[in-house]
C-alpha cells in the first residue's frame, strides 16, 4: 500500500522577545502563529480495526498537537532563559502564561522543539513528516524528518 501524508493546521497567538538580538524583535511582540503538522504512514488495512482506511484519525492528531503545543502556547509569552525574565513572572496578573525556554524562541528553534514533542506521541506506524510554523503571513520555518 502507498504511503499517505496527512496534514492538520492549527492557529494560536503568542508573544516573544529575542534576547540579545540586534533588531526590533528584541522587544516583546506578538504573532498569530499558524502551525501545519504533516504525518506519513500506510492506511490501516485490518478490516476489524475501527480506523480502517486511515493513516491516523485527524481527531487523534488534533488531540496530540493541542495538548503538546496549542493549549500551552496560546496567549503566552515565550522567552529565552538567559533573559532577565524574573520581574515578569512576579506580575502574575499579566504573565500567568509564560514559557522560559533553554533556547532563543525563534521560529526555527520552535519547530525543532515542536517536532520533538509531537514525534514522541504519534502511534506506531505513523511518523512525523514535516512541520511548518508561520510566524507572519509571509514568513515561516519548516522542519522535515528527512533532513534530521
What brief labels describe this structure?
148 residues; alpha/beta; elongated; 22% helix; Tetrahydropterin Synthase, Chain A; single chain; 6-stranded mixed β-sheet; 3 helices
Describe this structure in words.
It contains three helices and six strands. The chain has a single domain, classed as 2-Layer Sandwich (Tetrahydropterin Synthase, Chain A). The protein is α/β, with parallel strands linked by helices and 148 residues long. Strand 3 (76-80), helix 2 (86-89) and strand 4 form a beta-alpha-beta unit. The chain has a six-stranded mixed sheet. It has helices spanning 58-73, 86-89, 107-119, and strands at 4-16, 29-41, 76-80, 98-101, 127-136, 139-144.
CATH topology: Tetrahydropterin Synthase, Chain A
Q: What's the total number of strands?
A: 6
Gross CATH architecture: 2-Layer Sandwich
Strand content: 25-35%
Q: Could you list the spans in which at least 5 consecutive residues all have pLDDT below 50?
A: none
Order of H and E elements: EEHEHEHEE
Q: Characterize the quaternary organization of these chains.
A: single chain
Overall pLDDT, averaged? 95
How many structural domains are formed by the residues? 1
Computed over alpha carbons, the radius of gyration is 17 Å
Number of helices: 3
The CATH homologous superfamily corresponds to 6-pyruvoyl tetrahydropterin synthase/QueD
**What spatial order of strands do you see in the largest sheet?**
4-3-1-2-5-6
| Amino- and carboxy-terminal Cα gap | 25 Å
SSE-based structural type: alpha/beta
Amino acid at each position: 500500500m502507498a504511503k499517505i501524508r496527512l496534514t492538520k493546521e492549527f492557529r494560536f497567538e503568542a508573544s516573544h522577545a529575542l534576547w540579545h538580538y540586534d533588531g526590533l524583535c528584541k522587544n516583546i511582540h506578538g504573532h498569530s502563529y499558524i502551525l501545519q503538522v504533516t504525518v506519513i504512514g500506510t492506511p490501516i488495512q485490518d478490516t476489524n480495526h475501527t480506523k480502517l482506511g486511515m493513516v491516523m484519525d485527524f481527531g487523534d492528531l488534533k488531540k496530540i498537537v493541542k495538548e503538546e503545543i496549542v493549549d500551552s502556547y496560546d496567549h503566552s509569552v515565550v522567552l529565552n532563559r538567559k533573559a532577565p525574565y524574573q520581574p515578569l513572572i512576579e506580575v502574575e496578573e499579566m504573565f500567568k502564561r509564560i514559557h522560559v525556554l533553554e533556547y532563543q524562541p525563534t521560529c526555527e528553534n520552535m519547530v525543532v522543539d515542536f517536532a520533538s514533542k509531537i514525534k514522541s506521541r504519534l502511534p506506531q506506524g505513523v511518523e512525523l513528516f514535516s512541520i511548518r510554523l508561520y510566524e507572519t503571513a509571509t514568513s515561516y520555518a519548516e522542519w522535515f524528518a528527512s533532513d534530521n
